[in-house]
């Protein structure tokens, strides 16, 4: 284990129907395709940890952040148009958080290093856009609107040279938030 202090514990249960009814599937790890376990998913319960859920298999499509709690009809609560098709457990990071954001693709243009949440990159950094980033420490959520609103994307440590190549064509990221241990 590295010195990041990651805690790999998490548990989420998916249900075919609203209000935790119908067949269920309990998950404690990443699941790239839930169709072999459930034909559909309309509610879920996160018992511990945090998860990203996706409306397409293989961690593709729209992403939604789920923390501990009950989601009896998450589709109407979160504005989802489709079922959950895959999920990724987010390891808890207890060290420092660091991410560099860049105005242009391939780490071009203005660069700012962040160590805490930013509710509006235009106001804080005078950046009109964020098209690439390098997550050095911690796990982050990036939002396409200021004040942590709109579509989101989960970013784990690594280099992200071009958001368009990641299937995020036309999407701008305007706010960023650390995923902290407050999930539990």
Structural write-up:
- The chain is mainly β and 184 residues long.
- It is 5% helix and 45% strand.
- The chain has two helices and 14 strands; from the N terminus they run E-E-E-E-E-E-H-E-E-E-H-E-E-E-E-E.
- It has a four-stranded antiparallel sheet. The chain has a four-stranded antiparallel sheet with strand order 9-8-10-13, with no helix packed on it.
- The radius of gyration is 17 Å and the shape is elongated.
- The relative contact order is 0.17.
- The model is unreliable at 1-7 (pLDDT under 50).
Kindly list the characteristics that best describe this protein:
184 residues, 2 helices, 5% helix, 4-stranded antiparallel β-sheet, mainly beta, 45% strand
Provide the fold topology.
Layout: E1 11-17, E2 21-27, E3 43-48, E4 50-56, E5 60-66, E6 69-71, H1 74-78, E7 86-90, E8 98-104, E9 108-114, H2 121-125, E10 132-137, E11 140-145, E12 149-155, E13 158-160, E14 175-178
Antiparallel strand pairs: 1-2, 1-3, 3-6, 4-5, 4-7, 8-9, 8-10, 10-13, 11-12, 11-14
């Amino acid at each position: 284990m590295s010195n990041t202090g990651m805690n790999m514990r998490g548990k989420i249960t998916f249900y075919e129907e609203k209000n935790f009814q119908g067949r269920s599937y309990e998950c404690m790890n990443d699941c790239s395709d839930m169709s072999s376990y459930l034909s559909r998913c309309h509610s879920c319960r996160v018992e511990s940890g945090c998860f990203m859920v996706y409306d397409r298999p293989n961690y593709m499509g729209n992403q939604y952040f789920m923390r501990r709690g009950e989601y009896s009809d998450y589709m109407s609560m979160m504005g989802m148009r489709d079922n959950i098709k895959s999920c990724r457990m987010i390891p808890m990071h207890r060290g420092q958080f660091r991410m560099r954001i860049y105005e242009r693709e391939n780490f071009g243009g203005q660069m700012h290093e962040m160590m805490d949440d930013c509710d509006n990159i235009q106001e804080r950094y005078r950046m009109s856009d964020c098209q690439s980033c390098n997550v050095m420490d911690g796990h982050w959520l990036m939002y396409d609107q200021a004040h942590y609103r709109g579509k989101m994307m989960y970013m784990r440590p690594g280099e992200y040279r071009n958001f368009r190549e990641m299937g995020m064509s036309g999407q701008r990221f305007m706010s960023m938030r650390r995923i902290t241990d407050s999930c539990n």
